[in-house]
Amino acid sequence: MPGEDGPVTQLYNCRILRDHALVDDYLYIQSGRIIDPAKMFWDEQRLPDARIDCKGGIVSPGFIDVQINGAYGYDFTNDTDIIEEAVHNISKGLLLQGCTAYCPTTVSSRPEVYRKVLPHLGPRAGSVESGAAVLGAHVEGPFISPQKKGAHELATLRSAANGLADLDACYGLDNLRQYAAYVTVAPEVDGMLDTIPHLIAATGVGVSSGHSNATAEVAGRAHASGATMITHLFNAMHPFHQRDPGVIGLLGSSGPRPFYGIICDGIHVHPHSVMIAYYAHPAGACLVTDAMSAQSLPDGSYKLGKMDVDVHDGRVYIRGTDTIAGAIITMAECVRNFIQFTGASKVEALENATLHPAQMLGIADRKGTLAHGADADILILDNDLHVQRVFIAGVEATEENVQFRKRL
């Protein structure tokens, strides 16, 4: 492994999330990776260079948020002229929350917006200097259902009647190929069902069904064609019906079941619905915040894309309506709420915020795990799952070395 001769840090007095269990063990970090200490002990006969007492806490991979629109006053869609400033400050703020990697999310927009912001939202490594790792953009819309648009601007929505040509005209296929992790589409949009496999083949991006009025039959065909995710389950989609469960019905499929994002703020999804989804398909749950620019800021008026929204009492609405428009919850709060809503174990809740999102993105060999060889993006949590310490690439992130600006 490159850099094997660097200093070694040992984490001790802890329970480590490993192999779907919390185990009493040590964790060793070297040159930004988690290492197997056997070679160090037996071949090199050396001791750790530094030791960190975890004080009986839990050691977990860093949280991974695959759907977040903004935070700290910044918005990935609206702030086109200061997009690098937005990415820089959000990445640092999220890191201190315990979110060590994320997918910056854009809402439905006009083509010129994608061409301006996507080149700034592509994958980049995490560090104390740059903040949380960026895993590539989540491009949400504009090939979505007008009937299930949620907080997306109606005038921006498009069809795919001309297949890939329409997607290229909107995003630029090269932009998707280089900068996007996955896209959210409604499979029933004209032309989209036939386009999904061509989109995946041409760009390598993942495809998620969302903001959709699709029937169960159409949703099933989309996922048979390569879609692997459902965006914010239950929100902005055909409601569950016993004779046609729509996209939600994929959780009961006899074939491969998709991953699904779920917002555990107690506002977007009732706790009973969270429990139903989880017990239907526990291995697919991915906790997401769907946070917007007001996350970690006071109540007031903000932007989500080009739309005006109001935040009060933990809720976000399009101004003058009762339409929910994103959230202001953090990943750590989602994890704790998930346990409260479902009675799930700490292991299950933590894996929904670490392992499952990494598996959905195809990066579980290096993110979302504490396996030997993985990136040393690590949290030390207390036994109530509050974040105590954060490490990225093996370096501890603190308020002193990760300074950032809030845009009030």
Automatic annotation (TrEMBL):
Give the enzyme's EC designation: 3.5.1.25
Q: What is this protein called?
A: N-acetylglucosamine-6-phosphate deacetylase
Catalytic positions are 290
Q: Which GO terms describe its biological process?
A: N-acetylglucosamine catabolic process
The domain of life is Eukaryota
Q: Does the keyword Hydrolase apply?
A: yes
Q: Indicate which residues the UniProt annotation says bind Zn(2+).
A: 140, 211, 232
